[in-house]
Each structure stands twice: as C-alpha cells, then as structure tokens.
Amino acid sequence: MPGWRVRGVTRDVLAIVAGMSIQDVRERPEERREEADRLHARFTDPTSDFLTLLNLWNHLQDQQRALAMQGITWRAAVRRLLQGGKTLHLKEINSQLEAFAATRANNHWEAKIRQVVQDERYFERVAPGTYRL
Fold first, then answer.
1. Nearest to residue 116, comparing CAs of 94, 84, 86, 85?
2. Looking at domain 72-133, does it have CATH number 3.40.50.970?
3. 20 to 30 Å CA-CA from 91: which of 22, 32, 39, 75?
4. Residues facing 10 on adjacent strands
5. Phi and psi (nearest 5°) for 72?
6. Range(s) for CATH 1.10.10.10 in the chain?
7. pTM metric for this prediction
C-alpha cells in the first residue's frame, strides 16, 4: 500500500480532517489581523475553506521537505526524490523540488536539475523527459 494512502483515504482528505481537529488557523489576535490576512492571502481559495486549509498544508509540507534537504547536493536531492523505484517526469521532479530550490542561490535551478538527471552514471532515462535511479 503506498505511503500516501491510509485505509483507502488519500493524503489530501487526511490533511483536511487533521486540520479540522485543531484550532482554526485563521484565528489570530485582532491587533495583527491585517498582517495575517495579507500573509494568508496566497493560500485562500474563494470556493472552499477546505481547499484553503489544503493549500496551507501543502505549503507547510513543501517547507518541511526543503528543510529536510538543507545542505545536500542537487544530485542527492533528486536521488532522495526517486528512491523506492520511482519513475518521474522532469516536470514532476521540478515541481517537487521547487521548495528546495528556493533555499538555494540558483536562478537557473530547473536547468541544474535537468543537468543532474542527464548524468547516466546515476540516473536512467526511461522515456523522453522521464527518469529513475
């Protein structure tokens, strides 16, 4: 059973249910309401409070993943992502490493990831733009 499923429930549903079991993250001191609204605006989904909560959860997961990879090389970050026999397209690799890239001083990080995965000593190209360990 994949790690992102628990008893047939996807991780998105689990994140929403977990978020409902804690104090509402939108509650804040009145004197800091404007600042909090400004900072939370990028997570807000006008169609659903649940999607807003999910957007915030995904952001926190990205930040946690980036912190866990702090201080490692680009190759090690890609290897960590492809562990367990995963086969991913370059777009998926870029998407999942975007938070890690934000911690690095490299404006051309997508080109760097492409350069890393094209090293045949470490990665196998299984289809155009698709790689595995």
1. 94
2. no
3. 39
4. 5
5. -105, 165
6. 72-133
7. 0.56
